[in-house]
Amino acid sequence: MYSPIFAEPVPEWFERVTLRFARVFLPELRPRDVIENPEKFFGHVAGFVAELVEWAKRVKLSEVPRGKRWKLMRAEVLALRTVGPEKLRRLKRAVAELPRKFESEFYDAYAESVRNDSVKRALERLQDSNTAKICFFLLCMRPHIERRKFRTVSDLLSVFMRIEQLDPHRKKFLCENEAARRSLEGQFRDICSEDGLKLHGRGQPRKILPVAA
């Protein structure tokens, strides 16, 4: 997909996951809004991202543990701080080239998202929505997915489950409730499948030729 609002093509799976994620917080959004009213849809998304960038600026990295498990979180916070503002500036420059009606729809939705404190609502929803957690994780993993850091969905799922268990209470719950754990893993795989996320490793495994008799 290529939108005049975006400065670069967006992978189809990323578009679908973004829509699924957005609908957790804005149930009134419909799939056809992406095509019929993209300015409003992306205005909400941009407002959310703008708030997320501000949230990342307030995070004290000195208070984030330096262990291996926290390395990914530190990298994402730093990326939001450094890359986020420039992408938002590019986005606003692109919006300025749209007809006035569409530009107004974009900024009306943008302002509504900020006014409703969308990031705070999102963080609260992340506590009780598996769909939100999975989608947020996949959206953050896009750079790593495109650099082919993961060979399979199972590899991606493994990282997600490790992050889920960083919270001792969550870890205890998943360890004591095997059915809930299997359900979460199944939902992760279903979302990847339904939204068309296909992973390709850095190379095919070496073929083992049969030994001649």
Q: What would you say this structure looks like, in words?
A:
The chain has twelve helices and no strands. The protein is globular, with a radius of gyration of 19 Å. With 213 residues, the protein is mostly helical. The longest helix is centred in the N-terminal third of the chain and has 21 residues. The chain has one domain.
Strand and helix map with partners:
Layout: H1 12-25, H2 33-36, H3 38-58, H4 71-82, H5 84-96, H6 100-115, H7 118-126, H8 130-140, H9 142-146, H10 153-164, H11 168-176, H12 178-194
Q: Descriptors for this entry?
A:
mainly alpha; 67% helix; single chain; 213 residues; globular
Mean pLDDT: 79
The fraction of residues assigned to DSSP E strands is under 5%
Radius of gyration: 19 Å
**Largest beta-sheet characterization:** none
**Which bin fits the share of residues in helices?**
55-70%
User: Would you report the number of β strands?
Assistant: 0
> Which word captures the global form?
globular
Tally of helical runs: 12
- Distance from first to last alpha carbon: 53 Å
**Low-pLDDT segments, ≥5 res:** 1-7, 204-213
Helix/strand/pairing category? mainly alpha
Number of domains: 1
SSE ordering? HHHHHHHHHHHH
